[in-house]
Sequence to fold (482 residues):
Amino acid sequence: MSKERKLDANEYPKFGFVDKVAYAAGDFGCNMSFGLKGTVQTFWLVYMMMETGLLSILLLLVQIWDAVNDPIIGAMIDADTRKYKRGKFKTYILVGAIGLIVGGAAVFLPFPGASTFVKAILFIAGYVIWDAAYTMANVPYGSMLSLVTEDAGERAQLSTWRSLGGMVGGMLPGIILPMLIWENIYDASGNLLGQELKGSVVFWAALLMGVLGFVAFMFMINKITLRVDEYSVKTGEEAPKFNVVKAFGNFMKNRPAVGATVAAMGMFLGMQSATTANAIMFATYFKQAQLSGVVMMVGFLPMFLFMPFIKKLVNKFGKKEAATAGSIVSVVGGLIMMVFPMVSQSMALPVYMVGLLLFGLGMGVYTCVSWALMADAIDYSEWKFGTREEGTVYSLHSFFRKLAQGVGPSIVIALLGLLGYVSDLGTTGQSPEVAYRACWLVAGLYLFSAVMQFVGIGVIFNLDKKTLAQMNADLEAKRAAK
Fold:
């Protein structure tokens, strides 16, 4: 007989381990698909051999649409008052999870011999389908954190577990996938020329990851408990029509939301943008593309050091304070990474690894609390402006994140073209000069990422430990009075 969970004062199962594992499973499901973002750019650049200028433009266009549809779906969820058997948030997530099975594979249809026009159509159509499904699942999933619990410490735990689920979910596409999709190419004398991408393997891997993600989403939907009424996220009697200008204006007045968003944009402008450049660098400079994912894993393993202690760190120092200290360590790591292109090639990888380890060490703290920071930003909106808009605030945050995800890779691919990368030559035909320039590009992207995180959390985000305590006390008193 299974052990029954204890109930709280509102007759809900008490917050506990099941909620944390279930919420982690949700981001595992998201990252089964999201982790392929960097592979999309590499696939279309290296295997489909799309010209860098065209790919840069197409990436920018589809990612702008990606960013625009987030607040639309967020507002739609906020305004939806229909009663669903599973609840509206879980229902939207289920629809998105089903779509990701098909959409995740659609963007990797392997037809390298197609004309440029057909390639462009395949890219846009596949990406739009994939993106629509991902947004449908991810926007309500992110908003759910503030509905599972109202306790600040428990939210921090959910954020940490989300990061764990996201990291584990990102390992398969980010670490294992490079080992499967790259193959060594040798000349007639047996000398290693470099690596080439196996496009058909990428397609089947994406399809499999969509299925695994669906299983994870179903586990979360069936196990997690929402303790805040998801149908009462609006404070007014009637949900107003969504006004993009007004929503944007309210968001920009929400300083914690802006700070958390700047930090997230920095993370994605640096790290997400660096994925393709990193793959090119490992394939052309180090000639070890299969190991690029393993090296990335080593860089981000330090995050696990903080997971058992994050609640104690948050309770003692505060989320803002801990994340700010971490961002400073990441900046130091980024500065060290700027050194590796200047040393001998035999020493370049060890220096790169030292910088990456420090970068990951600092990133670990921020990653563990990043989603809890957004939950606090949602509360800040209610505290300062009297309106609670989970879907709208989170979706605008997601809008800017995705804008960074689109603009960053687009700029990086354009820069690769300016640095001399020729798509028709593949990775084995690039000159040593191009390989060397890719090293500088990667190092600069990581440093830029760390600096933006420091500015977002250390300078803009204004909910320090003392202010956060006051906000929570005021909101608790306000809700008790109602």
User: Anything to note?
Assistant: The chain has 18 helices and two strands. The mean pLDDT is 82.
